[in-house]
Structure formats: structure tokens, C-alpha cells
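User: Design a sequence. Structure:
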């Protein structure tokens, strides 16, 4: 018999405004301890120096992490001109310097190069794997390696303010897999100088923004007085951007058993003209999500079944 997990079977989302100086895993561990939860994961790692929106998934919500958080993210960061660092942020060692400081008009002229689909080489200190080993482990051991460029999507990149001679702040809206540290590094190089991120804050992940978050300190405070169901958002909260499909109980039972549903047969009961091949849907029954499913070859096939 398998060993039961310790903790309560909470299901849903909790959005933390991550403070500086703690890892994303550290936030998860604190939340698990405070709420005595059996299963917790996070969507989209933030570096220890970064702050901002860090969604935590509890219980069955962890099954939706990869589908929810592969979407849009929004950031605000400050670049420090004139210094390259081995980590591409303020925590690293200075590797190169430059006396040149870009002017506002120069920055504005270069930004369009970084909008759209671009090739980006991840930072040396990143979680990218090289022959099974994390790049940051190799970098810490001073081992030489080369990371390949990856195609990423940046929807918006704007200059917010020239703060002083050495600093400028920016806002970015991007897709998955974009490293803000690499973006700051490459922007500085394109401007003929060197640079790294001095401050980084995530403003949004998918449908979750700053207004949805609470501080880690507040969680610790409330965790001893408030009921957990007052803190945890329902699983479906994060699925607002995915079309919902309401099922009758027999259809829901089939999906729960891993069986596909015929699109033609469903279309006799509900309009499905909003669905195309490859689309994801949230199958709902009795007001609760049953599964994340995908339209494939004339059927709606369950991808992740949610046991709520």
C-alpha cells in the first residue's frame, strides 16, 4: 500500500507577491507549512532577487500548471548600464565594463528589434539542461559550455523612464521561456554598451495580476487565523482564458475514465462552432471542472482529468 501524503487535500490557487531574497521553492515550502497542504507547486520560477506575482497551485490545480502558465507574462525591470555580470543580474560578479551610456533616443530606436519572435540565448546561470546537467551548476563550477539560442515571443517592450545616467526602467509583455536577464543583456549590447538587471518585478502571469496577490508575510499571518478555503481560489479561476464546455453527467463520467467524446454527437446538444482542431477546453459538469481536454480528429480527448 502506498504511503499517504501528509497534509490537507486543498485544491486551487494562491497568488503570492514574492518578496526579494527568497527562492520560488522557498515560497512553496512556506505556503505548504502554513496551510498544511498535501501538494503544492508553483507556476513560473522567479529568481531570488526578483519580486512579484508567483501563482501557487494546490492539489488538482497542479495538473493545469503547464497549460495555464505557458501563456502571457508581464514584467517591469531596471537595467544598470555599463556593467556585464556573469549572472546577468545584480547578484553576479562584474565581467566587463563600458563607459558609454545610451541616450533615450538611442534606446527607443533599438527596442523594435526585440519585439516579435526573436532568438535568445539563455543566461549562463539558468535552469537549462546541458547533457542532463543544469547550466547554473556548470557555471558555478567554472566549466565551459555554450547554450543554444531559442525562439521566443515578445509582444511589448517599452521604455518607462530614464532614471539617471546609469539606470533605465522598462516594461515587457512576453510569452513563455523569455529570460528578462538575457533581454537586458542583449539590449545593452545592441546599444554598444554593457548592462544587467538591477531590479526585476513580475506584474502578471496568465490571468493573475498584482491585484490578485497577497504578501508572504500576510499569508503567514492569516494562516493562523483564517480558514484555508478563504485564501485558496477555485481551480477554474486560472482557466478563464480557455473555453468552457458544459457536459451532462454521463459525458463527464466518460472523460473521467479517459474516454474521448465525439464532437459531432456533442454538437447535437451544444454549439461547438467556437472549437477548432488542437484547441483546449475546460470540461465542466455540475459547476466544477472535470478535465482539461483537446480537440483531436473529431473527438474531445481528456488530457488531464481533475478529481474534484
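Assistant: Done.
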Amino acid at each position: 500500500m502506498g504511503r499517504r501524503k501528509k497534509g490537507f487535500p486543498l485544491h486551487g490557487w494562491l497568488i503570492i507577491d514574492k518578496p526579494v531574497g527568497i527562492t520560488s521553492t522557498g515560497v512553496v515550502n512556506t505556503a505548504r507549512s502554513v496551510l498544511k497542504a498535501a501538494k503544492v507547486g508553483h507556476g513560473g520560477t522567479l529568481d531570488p532577487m526578483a519580486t512579484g506575482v508567483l501563482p501557487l497551485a494546490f492539489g488538482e490545480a497542479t495538473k493545469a500548471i503547464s497549460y495555464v502558465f505557458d501563456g502571457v507574462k508581464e514584467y517591469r525591470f531596471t537595467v544598470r548600464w555599463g556593467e556585464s555580470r556573469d549572472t546577468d543580474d545584480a547578484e553576479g560578479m562584474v565581467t566587463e565594463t563600458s563607459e558609454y551610456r545610451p541616450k533615450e533616443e538611442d534606446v527607443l530606436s533599438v527596442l523594435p528589434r526585440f519585439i516579435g519572435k526573436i532568438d535568445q540565448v539563455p543566461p549562463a546561470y539558468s535552469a537549462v539542461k546541458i547533457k542532463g546537467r543544469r547550466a547554473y551548476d556548470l557555471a558555478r563550477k567554472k566549466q565551459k559550455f555554450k547554450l543554444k539560442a531559442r525562439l521566443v515571443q515578445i509582444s511589448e517592450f517599452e521604455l518607462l523612464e530614464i532614471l539617471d545616467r546609469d539606470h533605465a526602467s522598462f516594461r515587457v509583455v512576453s510569452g513563455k521561456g523569455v529570460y528578462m536577464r538575457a533581454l537586458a543583456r542583449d539590449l545593452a549590447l545592441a546599444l554598444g554598451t554593457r548592462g544587467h538587471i538591477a531590479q526585476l518585478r513580475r506584474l502578471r502571469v496568465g490571468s493573475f495580476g498584482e491585484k490578485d496577490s497577497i504578501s508572504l508575510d500576510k499569508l503567514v499571518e492569516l494562516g493562523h487565523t483564517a480558514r484555508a478555503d478563504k485564501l485558496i481560489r477555485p481551480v477554474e479561476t486560472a482557466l478563464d482564458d480557455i473555453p468552457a464546455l458544459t457536459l451532462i453527467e454521463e459525458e463527464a463520467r466518460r472523460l473521467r475514465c479517459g474516454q474521448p467524446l465525439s464532437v459531432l454527437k456533442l454538437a447535437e446538444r451544444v454549439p461547438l462552432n467556437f472549437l477548432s482542431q488542437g484547441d483546449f477546453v475546460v470540461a465542466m459538469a455540475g459547476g466544477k471542472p472535470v478535465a482539461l481536454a483537446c480537440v483531436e480528429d473529431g473527438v474531445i480527448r481528456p488530457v488531464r482529468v481533475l478529481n474534484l
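The helical segments are 24-35, 65-68, 104-110, 135-140, 180-190, 216-223, 249-256, 263-267. The first strand starts at residue 12 and ends at 18.
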